[in-house]
Write a structure and sequence with these properties.
Blueprint: E1 7-9, E2 16-27, E3 43-51, E4 57-59, H1 65-68, H2 81-96, E5 105-109, H3 115-122, E6 126-130, H4 134-142, E7 147-148, H5 154-164, E8 167-173, H6 182-192, E9 193-204, H7 206-212, E10 224-225, H8 228-237, E11 240-248, E12 254-261, H9 269-281, H10 286-312, E13 317-320, H11 326-332, E14 343-344, E15 362-363, E16 380-383, H12 389-395, H13 397-401, E17 405-408, E18 414-415
Helix pairs in contact: 2-3, 5-6
Length: 416
């Protein structure tokens, strides 16, 4: 069991924050590196706490944003067909909504490679993305998406309002949970959002993380782990109101939160229903958090025991998907090249580099094939990109047909 090490202060309400899980010394999750860069690699302590006052689950230590969302940030949102379809539906939903207005203006915080705003652009609708990572922002520009290479906060939002008028929709996907300075985000929304507009964001749901023991959702870029209860409390604190919630299946389970100015809309029944379910489940109750920590340690022990046994049997094990969240797994579980030979990934920017902290080689998909220079398919593949399991397993059916087996660790360790 992880022993709590005392309390500090909640970043949202300044209430007492109690630590319940320590995942140890961790690197920047998306900082893939060369051997020459290993001596200067950045590490921090990855620990999680819950606020006793507002229930917000959050990291105990903040990693400077400039280290994470730098010029060469390697993640591209459009890399998955499932996510491309998800963002297309999202864009069309915004454009068909009653609050879009006659001349809608859609703003996205953390617009990445422009996959969502591309659909808005195709509809001929005014739009703007905020994306601080220069190279990925340039990918969006090449697609014809308008992007501001900057962080979204009160001063930058006010500049956009002065130049282009109010936004009918401010949207963010897997971005708001990255931002410790939540008050500045809401101040920015206040500066830019139209009176009848909506602030909509979707992020990994703490309820799903607890239910699935998906501890790899905890890494440097995910500072907050939201619930409807904690988001409602934060919105009210900053002068807004949570008016709707929606369950999403993407990224291992998320909630989409719709926020309006106070009094601008009647909250949907889903808000109170979700808050009541969270209360009944005790999602941030001490007993729940202690059980979660114990479950995390059990998964770690089961996974390392399985991999050591396979090594002793002379089996070849590789990994699939050099995801940001895999850094938590490899470093917390101590997975080195003696247990996992390499990780295959489709992202060219990651290939030929080493994974953060654990320093596993990242190889192109050609290595995961019957014609591989390693002598064909491996015996087992540890699926780091488990949230895309259905899509990946269908794509790699030949691996299964050749006798290969997948190793999964969410919600528990198993071979399929």
């Amino acid at each position: 069991m992880t022993t709590p090490v005392g309390e500090t202060t909640c970043r949202v309400c300044r209430g007492p924050l109690g630590e319940f899980l320590d995942l140890g010394r961790q690197p920047l999750s998306d900082r893939f590196l060369t051997e020459r860069e290993i001596p200067g690699e950045f590490f921090y302590r990855l620990a999680v706490g819950a606020c006793a006052s507002c229930g917000m689950v959050q990291l105990m230590e903040e990693v400077p944003r400039e280290l994470m969302f730098r010029e060469d940030y390697p993640y591209h949102s459009s890399g998955s067909s499932v996510m491309r379809e998800h963002f297309a539906r999202t864009a069309h939903g915004f454009l068909e909504s009653a609050y879009a207005g006659p001349d809608p203006f859609v703003v996205e915080i953390g617009s990445n490679d422009g996959v969502m705003l591309g659909a808005v652009r195709d509809a001929g609708v005014r739009h703007l993305g905020f994306e601080p990572s220069g190279k990925v922002a340039e990918v969006a520009r090449r697609r014809g998406v308008r992007v501001r290479t900057d962080f979204f906060e009160e001063p930058t939002a006010a500049e956009v309002r002065a130049a282009e008028g109010p936004a009918d929709v401010i949207y963010a996907a897997n971005t708001i949970c990255h931002i410790p300075y939540l008050e500045s985000i809401f101040r920015g929304v206040d500066a830019l959002l139209a009176p009848g507009g909506r602030f909509v964001f979707e992020d990994p749901y703490w309820g799903d993380i607890v239910e699935k023991t998906s501890f790899d959702q905890i890494y440097d870029e995910h500072f907050y782990f939201f619930t409807a209860s904690s988001v409602r409390a934060a919105a009210e604190r900053f002068g807004f109101e949570l008016v709707d919630v929606e369950r999403l299946s993407v990224h291992g389970g998320e909630l989409r939160y719709t926020i309006a100015r106070r009094g601008a809309a009647t909250p949907a029944a889903a808000v109170a229903e979700t808050v009541e379910r969270e209360r009944a489940r005790g999602l941030t109750a001490p007993d729940t958090l202690r059980r979660f920590a114990a479950d995390v340690e059990r998964v770690r022990d089961d996974l390392t025991a399985l991999l050591r046994r396979l090594r002793e049997e002379g089996r070849r094990v590789v990994a699939y998907g050099a995801t940001a969240k895999s850094a938590t797994v490899t470093n917390f579980c101590g997975l080195d090249a003696g247990l996992v030979e390499w990780v295959c990934d489709t992202t060219p920017q990651k290939q030929g580099l080493l994974t953060p902290g654990a320093h596993l080689p990242v190889v192109p998909p050609e290595r995961f094939s019957p014609a591989s220079s390693d002598g064909g398919y491996p015996d087992y593949a540890l699926l780091f990109a488990w949230n895309h399991a259905e899509e990946i397993m269908a794509k790699e059916q030949e691996f299964r047909d050749a006798g290969g087996r997948w190793i999964l660790y969410v919600p528990d360790v198993r071979v399929v």
